[in-house]
Amino acid sequence: MTASFEYVFPSIRGTQAGRQYYVSMCPLKLIPKIFLFDEEELKPELRAQRLLNRSRIPEIARYLVRNKDDYVFSSITASIDGDVDFIPLGDDGDESLVGSLRVDMQSHFIINDGQHRRAAIEEALKQHPALGEETLSVVFFVDRGLNRCQQMFADLNRYAVKTSLSLGLCYDHRDAQAQISRLVAMKSEVFSGLVDMEKSALSARSRKLFTLSSINSANIAMLSGVELKTEDKTDGMSVEEAAGLCIDFWDEVAANIPEWELVSESKITAGDVREEFIHSHAVVLQALGAVCNRLINISMRDRQLKLSGLNNIDWRRTNSKAWEGRCMSGGRVTKAGHNVTLTSNYIKMQLGISLTPDEQRTEEAFKRGEHVK
């Protein structure tokens, strides 16, 4: 290499598909400086695949800063367009896999995988500069002229499968709401054995009646306005207290929906209940959570009295007069923001619970046949 100035990365050398690649540990403070990201400088055909979703960056940066003692970041993968030279270390000469990767400073680095991490690191360093001394593994591929760059992007993302929401909640030990929903799913007699902790959509033959993600949405609605304790906030309910409150409500709800208990007792199948009734579907669970939220501040006796009215509601799919347009469309269960509101409105009216002004306006628009958002 004849360049006067160069980057030097302590690296490990490997081989894939007959081509050498290199892995190096880079301090976080160098990541934004070395891996520049200027969409205007990239070829249009490359830029089209690498537009940042900037709304994701603050969330990732917050994760990094808030969990600076317990975060995990996967490697960044980058292509090098320029001259490189690997100088082996040790007595093995050219056979050594450990050495220094020297890269001409005129070279270009294009991130194939990890540009949102790179942008989030840059943002996090502004808030907590000490993170700059920590390291992140970077995988370098040599790609002269960036001829393989697009294909590498496609190959790296070809088999990527996003984790289901339920599984993400099951494994998330930082988020208070996820902790609450796991406790509810595991400790509630109502949900015991009936919750799929991995899938967010149940097959027709599934023996489960609920998903963890649907219970989580319902619990969020139920606890709306309830302050939870966090590492930064000592006031409010603990996770255990909030989970206990949710369990108490679900016990009362289940006492007035006999089909749930029949599934638990194996007297009817979960598939038959989901096929014939709507009360185990996510949209209705969330609506029930919203209904329970309105009852948090009343006495236990009055709460039980209100919820006893659930037993008088016809939850069958065939009750199109009640459910069509609210949580069903053309006989199929649908879930959007207005579906949850309209469904909770109907349940509240059946239980004698007054609607808020916003809910009343939504209800009036629905009855006029206007499109509800």
From TrEMBL:
<dbReference type="Pfam" id="PF14072">
    <property type="entry name" value="DndB"/>
</dbReference>
<protein>
    <submittedName>
        <fullName>DNA sulfur modification protein DndB</fullName>
    </submittedName>
</protein>
<dbReference type="InterPro" id="IPR017601">
    <property type="entry name" value="DGQHR-contain_dom"/>
</dbReference>
<dbReference type="InterPro" id="IPR017642">
    <property type="entry name" value="DNA_S_mod_DndB"/>
</dbReference>
